[in-house]
Amino acid sequence: MDSPTPPNAMLLAAHAGDRDAMVQLLHVYRPNLRRYAQQRCLISDVDDAVQEALLVMARHLGAVRKLASFSGWMFKVVQRECRRLGRVAFKQDPYEEALVDQWMAAHTPDSLRMDLAAAMESLPPHYVQVVLLRDFEELSIREIGERLELDVPAVKSRLHRARVMIREYLLA
């Protein structure tokens, strides 16, 4: 009897274009993505979010440059889809997702980097600091608070405001 393919080998094969490995990968990741979605989505949206994440994985896996961050990427896709479905359910889109998608499609990766750098430079220094610690150094909210001598709600507030300002700058 054949032993199951290890996830890393399966991921590498799927990334290289092996359709059987992609099917196996979708099968392996589905239960974990579903559990994750159950914690972040409205119960009626769980299956839709997981299905969309699996479709994204199938379409864009070949474009992923760092396979080591594959799991994090997949969970981020589910999280984004849960948020999108929640906005649809409540008929509210505070992030104007269609505008974001249109803006992203109109930019090259290099121009995106330059625009993001300009957006970061436009922020007050205390917001830049929080974004860098969270998104680039990947510190937890608590770790950021300890480093900056702030309480957790203050860190969350600064991070949220910084991200809103970046989004507004980029979409302006």
Instruction: Supply the number of helical segments.
Output: 9
The CATH class label of the largest domain is Mainly Alpha
Q: Order of helices and strands, N to C?
A: HHHHHHHHH
Largest sheet: none
Number of strands: 0
How widely separated are the two ends? 59 Å
What does the model show?
- The chain has 2 domains: 92 residues, Orthogonal Bundle (Rna Polymerase Sigma Factor, Chain: A), CATH 1.10.1740.10; 78 residues, Arc Repressor Mutant, subunit A, CATH 1.10.10.10.
- With 172 residues, it is mainly α.
- The chain is built from 9 helices and no strands.
- Helix 2 packs antiparallel against helix 3.
- The radius of gyration is 18 Å and the shape is globular.
Layout of secondary structure:
Layout: H1 7-15, H2 19-40, H3 46-60, H4 70-89, H5 97-105, H6 109-122, H7 125-136, H8 141-148, H9 152-171
Helix pairs in contact: 1-2, 2-3, 2-4, 3-4, 6-9, 7-9, 8-9
List keywords for this structure.
globular, single chain, 0% strand, Arc Repressor Mutant, subunit A, 172 residues, disordered N terminus, mainly alpha, 9 helices
In short:
With 172 residues, this protein is an all-alpha fold. 75% of the residues lie in helices and 0% in strands. The protein has 2 domains: 1-92, Orthogonal Bundle (Rna Polymerase Sigma Factor, Chain: A); 95-172, Arc Repressor Mutant, subunit A (Orthogonal Bundle), CATH 1.10.10.10.
